[in-house]
């Protein structure tokens, strides 16, 4: 039987903050206009065979494959994801905000927190927290004729130490949807 926060549809909010070591810090930056968040657990495994059968299966540590897309360019969020900054120049009506994607390997780790609204009568919510991830692809920009810009970013999540145990992500179901974190 489903309980509160189990039946959700879509995503209502996604925020990102930096992670230093195993400690998230700083302000959570909103990924404005989030359209989708996908979190998949993957792991390599190996097997030893003999006597015409599988004798052993060994699983390597798990990782997360994470992807999100949004309806906006989100320069401030891209700066957090890549440990860079947005520069602002000019004065109204000639202001310019600029973000540049570094060519060097990205070493910044981030925490992502996404929330989806429950579809029950109590106003519940489900929240997923990707505890430690790093951009491995994107942002991908598609400027096509008669199409909305919906940039995508790919990340890979690794275990983060929480009280002596490494975890990849956390799921929380709320009976009443909380206000999102600042």
Word description of this protein:
The chain has 1 helix and 14 strands, in the order ββββββαββββββββ. The model has no long low-confidence stretch (mean pLDDT 91). It has 182 residues and is mostly beta strands. The two termini are 33 Å apart. It has one helix at residues 75-82, and strands at 13-20, 23-30, 34-42, 45-50, 53-59, 63-70, 87-89, 96-98, 109-117, 125-140, 152-157, 160-162, 165-167, 169-174. Strands 1, 2, 3, 6, 9, 10, 11 and 14 form an 8-stranded antiparallel beta sheet that branches. The radius of gyration is 19 Å and the shape is globular.
Q: What is the strand content?
A: over 45%
Major sheet description: 8 strands, antiparallel
Distance between the termini: 33 Å
How many alpha or pi helices? Answer: 1
Residue ranges: pLDDT <50 for 5 or more in a row? none
Topology as a string of helices (H) and strands (E): EEEEEEHEEEEEEEE
Computed Rg: 19 Å
Average the pLDDT over all residues and give the rounded result.
91
Secondary structural class: mainly beta
User: In oligomeric terms, what are we looking at?
Assistant: single chain
